[in-house]
Amino acid sequence: MTLMQLKYVIAVAGEHSLNDASKKLYISQPSLSSAIHSLEKEIGFDIFIRSKNGITLTTAGIEFIGYAKSVMEQYDILDSKYLSHVKLKKHFSVSMQHYTFAVNAFVEMVKQYGMDEYEFEVHETKTHEVIENVRNRKSEIGILYMNDYNKSVLTRIFSESGLQFFPLFECGVYVYMWKGHPLADNQEVTLKDLEEYPCLCFAQGEHNSFYFAEEVLSTYQYKRFIRANDRATMLNLMVGLNGFTLCSGIICEDLNGKDYCAIRLRSDEKMIIGYIARKEAVLSPICEKYLKEIAKYRGKNYN
């Protein structure tokens, strides 16, 4: 296995085409194909599935590409420091469920570190993609929650993916809605009170299992129910349809504005907000700083 072969498979994975990758790499397609076949033979499994519609990664190939990218990133650092003498920017990436406090913590961390020496990525996305991004090293950590309902299933998935969950803080369950909602002045509400209003949940795509839901009480039979893909749409539905969603109660007016509120739900349910990382991974200093920023939200949900 050579660094050149790793460079080739990363390029093909990115282009989804041998022809396009060969043009990008400035080599012939037969030479590229031969190099990849040689690598697949050496490692004992196919990295790609080849069809008339193009090239896609196998399940094993997805994991392999994650490690290959990690190796190439480390090589680029060595090359820039000791050979090319070019100063490369450090990189930090985090994936998360749709939490404004996690985004706000990211903003505060970037402000402190600045962008002269770092390149940053933040992926606010579906639960399954949070897990995959950490497993494949696209992100250093992933921010999500666990509770009594999803704990056993997610713990198994984390273990199979070589990941581990680390709790940050516990919080109750709150109802998030706009301040013009008929129930917005209540100190506490029940699921019965909410029956006539649409419950809004983040869509999880093909992984729409209850265990991947970002909202607690996902198995409750809501009378009215709408899935949405992003936070902006969710906020619009709250205003337009008097919709609501369930959350941690930690709201950030700086990001979502002052037109929304969190009201305690009468429930014994608890959420454990935490992060996932690769087992035995040593977190970078900037990642540790980001987690300290998130930890500041401990106890800040509405009481």
Structural topology:
Blueprint: H1 3-15, H2 18-25, H3 29-43, E1 48-51, E2 54-57, H4 59-83, E3 90-96, H5 100-113, E4 118-124, H6 127-135, E5 141-146, H7 151-160, E6 163-171, E7 174-178, E8 188-189, E9 199-202, E10 225-228, H8 231-241, E11 245-247, H9 253-256, E12 260-265, E13 271-278, H10 285-295
Parallel strand pairs: 3-4, 3-5, 8-12, 9-10
Antiparallel strand pairs: 1-2, 5-13, 6-13, 7-11, 7-12
- The number of distinct β-strands equals 13
The amount of beta strand, in percent, is 15-25%
Q: How do the helices and strands follow one another from N- to C-terminus? A: HHHEEHEHEHEHEEEEEHEHEEH
Report the principal-axis shape: elongated
Residue runs with pLDDT of under 50 for 5 or more positions: none
Number of helices: 10
Report the radius of gyration as a whole number of Å: 22 Å
> What share of the residues lie within helices?
25-40%
Whole-number average pLDDT?
89
Could you give the order of strands across the largest sheet?
4-3-5-13-6
Structural class: alpha/beta
Profile the largest sheet.
5 strands, mixed
Notes on the protein architecture:
It is built from 10 helices and 13 strands. It has a 5-stranded mixed sheet with strand order 4-3-5-13-6, sandwiched between helices. The chain has a 4-stranded mixed sheet with strand order 8-12-7-11. A two-stranded antiparallel sheet has the order 1-2. α1 crosses α2, α1 (3-15) packs across α4 and α5 (100-113) crosses α10 (285-295). With 303 residues, the chain is α/β, with parallel strands linked by helices. α5 links the parallel β3 and β4. The model has no long low-confidence stretch (mean pLDDT 89). The protein has helices at 3-15, 18-25, 29-43, 59-83, 100-113, 127-135, 151-160, 231-241, 253-256, 285-295, and strands at residues 48-51, 54-57, 90-96, 118-124, 141-146, 163-171, 174-178, 188-189, 199-202, 225-228, 245-247, 260-265, 271-278.
